[in-house]
Amino acid sequence: MEKEEWVSDTLLEWGSCGQLAYVDGAAAGYVLYAPAAYVPRAGAFPTAPVSPDAVLLMSARVLAEFAGRGLGRQLVQAVARDVGQRGIRAVETFGRTDTAESSGCMLPVPFLQAVGFRTVRPHPRTPRLRLEVKAPTNWRAGVGQAVERLINTVPARVV
Questions:
Q1: pLDDT for 91-137, tens place per residue?
Q2: Lower Cβ count inside 10 Å, N or C end of the chain?
Q3: Are 19 and 47 in contact (CB under 8 A)?
Q4: d(Cα 6, Cα 37) in Å, to the nearest integer?
């Protein structure tokens, strides 16, 4: 109930705070994220605080029967796309170094590093990691720039 209330409040105040992955119509995984101000317990981590230009990736899970298909990476990419469109520069998270632990909401550091996160504050158990988000490009501006570069590289013909 608490998480449902949190999601509802965060949706109303900040907007979308999660992504879902489906495989053939079946829910296969999820990810939750929000600015650190919406996650009061985030300040209790020894590697806190989360940078002011980032959102906090709080938890993610892919169901066992769908593991190994790249859904975790796709969920992280969906978060990066969403926050990039909002003008947010990065996603940060508290990873776990104990990869034998299978429960809990924190993601293992090796997975986070494999999808592009870099450690910004080391810790023996709960390092803080960061994924820089690329700003979305306006496709029209991108096409215009590409055409201009092409025109400038083609030798002019004198008639």
A1: 999 999 987 766 567 899 999 999 999 999 999 999 999 999 987 65
A2: C
A3: no
A4: 12
pLDDT digits (tens, 9 = 90+) for 47-82: 999 999 999 999 999 999 999 999 999 999 999 999
- The answer to whether the CB of 104 falls within 8 A of the CB of 96 is yes
The position carrying tokens 């055409």 is 147
Give the side-chain half-sphere CA count within 13 A for 61: 10
Residue 85 backbone dihedrals phi, psi, to 5 degrees: -65, -20
Would you say 77 and 18 are in contact if contact means Cβ atoms under 8 Å apart? no
Residue 18 predicted with pLDDT over 50? yes
Q: What size, in residues, is the chain? A: 159
Rg (CA), the chain: 19
Give all domains of the chain, ordered by start, each with its CATH number: 2-153 (3.40.630.30)
Cis preceding-peptide flag for 136 (omega within 30 of 0): no
- The H-assigned helical ranges of 2-158 are 2-13, 71-85, 109-114, 139-153
Q: Is the pLDDT of residue 157 over 50?
A: no
SS3 label, residue 102 = coil
State how far the Cα of 108 lies from the Cα of 101, in Å rounded to an integer. 9
